[in-house]
Amino acid sequence: MKRLAILLILAFVFINSTWSSGQDTTEISLGENQVLTVTESGNNTNVTIGGNRFEVSAADQSVKIRMGKRGLEIMDGPGGPKLDWKKYDEYYYDDDDDADERRRDRRRYTPHWAGFEMGMNNFLTADYSMSLPAELSYMDLNTGKSFNVNINFAQLGIGLSRHFGIATGLGLEFNDYKFEGNNNIAKDEDGIVDVAPAPDGIEYEKSKLSTVYLTMPVFLEAQIPVKYGRTLNIAAGAIGGVKLGSHSKVVYYDGGKQKNKENDDFSLSVLRYGPTVRLGYEQFQVYATYYMNGLFIEDKGPELYPFQVGMAFSFGD
């Protein structure tokens, strides 16, 4: 849990290294009505932008994250990480904020990140081909059944203007990689991942690898006004993720329906990062993400690079 806490807090180290002046609290003006405030206290890092606050706090057994009205607490337990979702009634305001300032804050730039996404997964080779060599045919996917589902539960926008800004947030990324062949994968005693063929006489009805990542994007978004006050939205940037869990599963018939599930790290990359783009109209977008580091740890599995494309439905404030 400490490692996860450090990874999350590192995302904000650049803020402290850039703006810190030996004080516990630093304020930076972002415009006429917005001030960015960075406060450090023990294991807590608070970033306040206007009326919104992004807070990360870490303890030995838990990590607490808050963005605006939404939050997440990740706690260690005997069965692995436990997630507890939080929702708060109000944004943060100082006592001396007047009504006009609060109204201006409600009209702030709002990014299109928080929401629900669903798409498809596949792999690229090192030379950007979707056609895998014969020796890696066991990694061929049934793309139509290899789903990517993302739940983006928190977002934060820094408005450079009413229709242009920098956005970040947090989300959970669920990936199913459904194998086309009659096989799954397995890890040997040296941590090397290779093919695991189905036993003789067994035909797998379903065989897949599943992963869960906690994700954090940083992107620029332009909102282009069109008719009736609606907007076209164009966004591009980078996204990173920390692996929370993974398992394999096979389903087959052998004197009845059988299901075998194995929880393992499968030498998958703990961290993943890469470019992401989004294009949409109002609350509907299409997205594409490519991860620049391999699916597996280097020299521990096939050199494959995951990508995903799909549709997104963002939520308003």
Topology:
Blueprint: H1 2-10, H2 13-19, E1 25-29, E2 35-41, E3 44-49, E4 52-58, E5 62-67, E6 70-75, E7 82-87, H3 99-106, E8 115-124, E9 147-161, E10 164-178, E11 183-187, E12 193-197, E13 204-225, E14 231-253, E15 257-263, E16 271-281, E17 284-290, E18 305-314
Antiparallel strand pairs: 1-2, 2-3, 3-4, 4-5, 5-6, 6-7, 8-9, 8-18, 9-10, 10-13, 11-12, 13-14, 14-15, 14-16, 16-17, 17-18
**Radius of gyration, in angstroms, nearest whole number:** 22 Å
The count of β-strands is 18
Main sheet specs? 8 strands, antiparallel, barrel
Distance between the termini: 31 Å
**Helical proportion?**
under 10%
Low-pLDDT runs of 5+ residues are 1-23, 91-97
Q: What is the general shape?
A: globular
Number of domains: 2
The helix-and-strand class reads mainly beta
